[in-house]
Fold these 2 entries.
Entry 1:
Amino acid sequence: MHQIAPMSEDQAAIKAAVEKTLEPFGDDYWAKTDETGDWPEEFCDAMAAGGWLGIAFPEEYGGAGLGLTEAALMMQTVTRTGAGYSGASAIHLNIFGPKPLERFGNPEQKRENLPKIISGEEKMCFAVTEPNSGLDTSSLETKAERTNTGYTINGRKIWTTGAQRADKILIIARTTPKDQCAKPYLGLSLFYTDLDPNKIERQPIPKMGRKAVECNMLYIDGLEVPKDHLIGEEGEGFKYLLQGLNPERVLFAVESIGLGFSALERAATYAKERVVFGRPIGQNQGIQHPLAKSWAELSAAELLAYKAAGLYDAGQDCGAEANSAKYLGTEAGFRACETAVLTHGGMGYAKEYHVERMMREAMLARIAPVSREMILNFIAERVLGLPKSY
Amino acid sequence: MKVLVPVKRVIDYNVKVRVKPDQTGVDLANVKMSMNPFDEISVEEAVRMKEAGTATEVVIVSIGPKQAQETIRTALAMGGDRGILINTDETVEPLAVAKILAKVVAEESPDLVLLGKQAIDDDSNQTGQMLAALLDWPQGTFAYKIEKDGDALTVTREVDGGLQTVKLATPAIVTVDLRLNEPRYASLPNIMKAKKKPIDEKAPGDYGVDISPRLSVVKVTEPPVREAGEKVEDVATLVSKLKSAGAI
C-alpha cells in the first residue's frame, strides 16, 4: 500500500503512534546513553511492547504484515524524534534482519523463532562481515565444517551489532571451499543458532559515535550448530542474504534522512533565536541558504527512498533506486547534521545542543552497510552498463 | 454498561499556535492535528472499564471534518469497539455539539457518556454540562476517579481546594480531568485491528440539529509578549520600586 505523499490514514496513524511511543525518550535520554554506552533497553522494551518489531512480518507470527514502506516510515520517525541511530540501530536488525529466516527457513524454524524475535523475548545479531572480507562477501573465511550432528563453526566476524546482549546469531559461513565451487558466491551457508558465549568471544569496538549500540569483533572457536539450525539449502546462503540488501539500503536511507531533518529543525530553531549584531542569525542568507539546501536535498532523497520501498512492496526490482536512495539519503543526512553544527557555531560543538552527536552518528550511515563507492560502482555497472572496475 | 465517548480533533498540543493575520481565528493550514488530550483520558478510562468487565461496549463519536475519522480510528486502536462520525466542515459550537450528542444518546442508549472536561482549542468546558442539562441526567465533572457502585457511579471530582466525592445514578454524564489516568499509546497490532472496526458516517442534518452559530468571535490575538524584568540589589530597593510603580 505504497502512498506516503500524501500519507494514507494508516501511515499517518503509524507515524503518530511511533511519535507517541518515543515521547518519553527525549534528548537527555539519548545524550545519556551516548555518554554511558548503556543499551537503550527502555526504548527497545517500549517498541517491542507496541508490537513495532513485527511491522514487516506476517500476522501469524505476531507481526503486522505491512511492507517496507511502513517499516521505513517507522524507522524514519524514530530517528526524526531525535533518537538518531542510538535508537534506530537498537531495533533496525529486528525489522528486516530475520527476513532470510522468514523466507527460507522451514516452518518449524519460523514457528520457533519469529514470534520470539517479534515480541522482543529473543534478541538476535547478524554476523556477516569479516576482518579480511568486507563487501567482498564471497571471500569469507569463517568455516562451517560438517559433523555427525551438524556443523562446527570457526572463524572471525567484525562489526556485529548488538552481540553483547544477543541470545541468537544469524551467521554466514563457508561450507564448501571456494575453489571447489562453480561460482565464488556458492558454498556459503546461513545458520540461525544460539549465541554460545563460551564459544564466541565478543569484543566491543570503541568507535566514533552511537556508543549505546555496540559493534563487536567476534572470535568463534568451535561453535557447535545442530543440523536443523541451517537455513534453507546448504551452499545457498549468499543468495538468501542478497534478498535483504535492498530493504536494508532503504532503511539506512530513511533513518539518515530522519536524523538530518531532526538536526535541521534544531538548527532552524537556533538560527531564529540566536541574536548577534542585533538580529537573529537566521536572518542572514549565509545561514539560511545552507539550511534550505539541506531541506531540499533531504526531501529529494526521501522521495527516492519511498519510491524504492514502493517498488519493493510491489515485488519489482528496486536495486537502482534503493542504492541511489542510500547514497543520496545518507549524504544529505550527514550534510544536514554538519550544517546544523555549523549553524550553532560554538554551541554546535557543545554536547548540550545534541547536533554534534547527530553528526557523529550520521557518519556511520555513509559507510555502513555499503560504501558510497560500491554504490556508485553498482549504478555504473548495472544501470549504465559500464564495465566492471574492480 | 455501555459507554459513549465523544472525541474531538484539535491542534496537536505540541504545536505552537499561530493567529491568522486578520485575527479571525488560528491558522490550521498544514498544522498537525490530534485527539484532544482530555478525550484521550476519557477513551482510556472507558477502555479500562471494558477491560475490568464493568463496560460492555465502548462507542466513539466525533463531530467534525472527514479527517476526524482518523481521530476515531485512534480511539478504536486504543480499544474502542466502533465509531460514529458526524461529518461537517462547519464550526460547531458546544451547544450544537451537545444537541447532536443528545440525539446520539437517544439512538444508542448508553449508560454513561464520558467526555473530556474541555477541548484544548477553545477551552469552552461546556459540552458535558450542556448535554447533562439537555438529557436531564446527573453529571460528575472534572473526574479524578470513577468507580462503579452497583447501578450507580462514585465520582471523585477535582474542585478548588481539594477533592469532592459524588454519587450518580446511571445513566450519567462524567467529564474527566487530567489526573484520572495516563492514556496508553496505540500499539501496532491494535492499529491494524482498528482498521476492521466499523465507523458509521452521519451528518448533523440526520439528527435534525441546526448547527448554525449563535456566537460571533470578535477577534483572536496572540498573548502579549512578556516584557523583560528588572533585577534589584535588595529587598529595600524592591519595596521602594514597587511603591513608586504604584503596585503596593
Entry 2:
Amino acid sequence: MFRISGWSLIRLFTIMVYVFMFLPIVVVIILSFDTQQFASFPMRGFTLKWYVELAQNESIIRAFRSSIMLGVLAAFISTSIAIPAAMAFVRYSFRGKNSLNTLLLAPIMVPEVVLGVSLLLFMRFLQQPKSFTMLVLGHVMLTLPYVLLIVQARMVSIQDVYEEAAKSLGANPFQAFKEVTFPLLVPAILAGMLFAFTISFDNITATLFWATAEHQTVPVRIFGMLRHSISPEINALGTVMIFFTIMLPLLAAFMIRYFGRKKV
Amino acid sequence: MKKYSWQPWALLTPSLSAIFLLLVIPVIFVVVYSFWLRAPTGAVIPAFQFGNYAKFFEDLFYPSILFRTIRVSLTCVFLCLIMGYIPAYFFHRSTSRFRQALILLVLLPFWISFIIRTMSWINILGTTGFLNHLLMKIGIISQPLSLLYNEAAVLMGLIQFLLPFMILNIFVSLEGIDKNLLEAARSMGCNEWQAFREVTLPLSLPGVSAGCLLVFVLTAGTYLPPMILGGPGNEMIANLIFSRVIGTLDWPFGSAISVILLLLLGTIVWTYNRYLGINQLFKAFKGT
C-alpha cells in the first residue's frame, strides 16, 4: 500500500522538480522564435529574424569574441598551473598539505562579490586600471579550484608505479612525467580545460566588477540589455548561449567516460 | 609517497602565487581598507577607525539588509532541502533504465549560464509571461498578476540555481549507504517508512548538511537574482556592496560591508568544519 502510493508521489514530485528546473529554459528557447517585439505570451508566429539580427549585431559579436578569448586564456593558464599543483598534492607528503589544498579551493567558498571587490580595489590601489589582463587573471582564480579538483581526482587513480618503472628504465623525472603520467592525464586535462572555459564563459557577478567597456563578455552584455526589457533578441541570445554551454560539458562528460573506461 | 623538501614547493609555486596575488592579498587589503577614511571630497585616507562599521550599524537600514539576506538564505536552504531530498531519494531507489540520464539531466542547469537562467524567469512570471497566460486561459484570474520583482521571484531564481548542488550532495551521500543495512532493517521487521526513518535518513545527514551549507553560503553572497528578479525592497548584501563600490564609489564602506559578509559566512563555515568536517563538501564534486 505504502509502496505504491508513496513511491508514485515521490515520482510525481521529482517530475515537478524537473518541470520547475527546465520550464523557464524551454520557454526562453520557444520565445526566441516569436515574432513580437516584446517577449510575451501568447506567441504570434514563428520567425528566425532575431537570430539574424543577433548575427548582425556588432556589439554582441564583439562580446562573443571577448568571452571566447577570455575563456580560452583562463582555461589554458589555470590548467597549466593546476597540473603541477595536483602532482604536488598527490605524489608528495609535506607539511601543511591539507591547509594548502583547502587554500587553493578557497575561491569556491568566498562569495563572488567579495572576490570581485577585493581584486578590483587592490588593483586600483596599485594604480592599475581595469584591463583585459586583469579580467584574465581574475578568471584564472575563479577556474583554478575546479580544474585542480578534476586533475587531482584523476591523478590519484594513476599509480606512481608506472612512473617509477619508467625511472628505473633510465628516464629522468621530467621524461617519466612526459612519457607516462602526462598521456594518462590527458583526458582529465581536457575535461578540466573545458570545465574552466565554461565557468569563465558563464561568469557574471565577478566579471561585472572587472570588465572594461571595450571588453564586455556575453553575460555582461545580456545584463546591460536586460536593463531595458526582455526581448526576443535576448531570448535568442540566451538560446545560443544554452546550446553553446551545453555542448561543451557534454563533450567533457563523454571524454571522461570514454577515456575513464580504459582503466590502467 | 615521496619525501623531498623542495620539489612539492616548486610544483606549487605557480598556483600558490596566483592565489596569494589574486585572492589572499586582495582580501587582506579589503580588510585593511575597511578601516580607512573617506573624505567628503571622495579621497581615501589611510587610517585606523571603525567609522565604516559604525555607519553600517548606525540605523536599521543596513542591518535590515543583512537580516533579509540571512532570512532569504535560510528560506532558500529549507525549500532546496525539500525540493532536493525527494528527487535525490528517487534517483537512489529508482531502478529505471533512464536513471543515469535523469541524474545527468539534473546536472545540466549547472552548465547553463547563470544570467540566462535568472532572466528566464521574467518570461515565466512577467505580466505577459507564461504563468499569467496559463492562469487567464484556465480562467482562474481575469487580470494578470504582478508576480515579478518580489521576494518570491528572487527565491524562484535562487532555487533553480542552487537545487542541483543540494540534489547532488544528498544523492552522493545516499549512494554511499551500505545497502546491507537497509536489508537488515527490513529483515528485522521494519516497514519501508521505518527503514527509511531509522537507517537511510540518519545516514544521509552528512550530505544534507553539506548541501545546506553550500546553498546557504551561495545564497548569502548572491547578486544576480535580487538584482534582476527582485524589486527595490529585495536588495541583498551583495547588491549593497556592488552599489557602494561601483555606484557611489565609497570604497572603504564597500570594503567594510564585504568584511561583514565574510565574517558571517566565515563563522558559519568554521563552525561547520569544526563539528562536521569540510571534506564532505568536496565529495560531491569528486563524485561526478
